[in-house]
Amino acid sequence: MSTASKVTLGVTALSALGIVLFVHQAQNSERAAMHAGVIRDMDQQREKQERIQQERMQDFAMQKALEEEYRKVQTVSDGSGSKQK
């Protein structure tokens, strides 16, 4: 085998190995980025649910306070429509 063919074979083998390693590295970094995106989305959903829960609790407290205030001002019936004697 001539020196030129040995050099060509070596360069080709090293290039192929370099390409394989580069692709492997790119896949690993892409997989890590995708996983980080999933974690970020889960955190955002959890924060949104907590915010919605807190808003509902505030609405409930406000409605309860309004109900108590209205009960002080007006007579409230149970809504059954039956008249008591």
Q: Provide the helix percentage.
A: over 70%
Compute the average pLDDT. 92
Q: Please tell me how large the radius of gyration is.
A: 35 Å
Q: Count of helices?
A: 1
- Content-based structural category: mainly alpha
Number of strands: 0
**Element-by-element helix/strand order:** H
Question: What kind of sheet is the major sheet?
Answer: none
Question: How would you describe the shape?
Answer: rod-shaped
Bin the strand percentage. under 5%
Q: Low-confidence runs (pLDDT<50, min 5 residues)? A: none
- What is the CA–CA distance across the termini? 117 Å
Descriptive keywords:
mainly alpha
Report a brief summary of the structure.
The protein has 85 residues and is mostly helical. Helix content is 84%, strand content 0%.
Describe this structure in words.
This protein is mainly α and 85 residues long. 84% of the residues lie in helices and 0% in strands. The protein has one helix at 3-73. The protein is rod-shaped and about 110 Å long. The N and C termini lie far apart (117 Å).
Topology, please?
Blueprint: H1 3-73
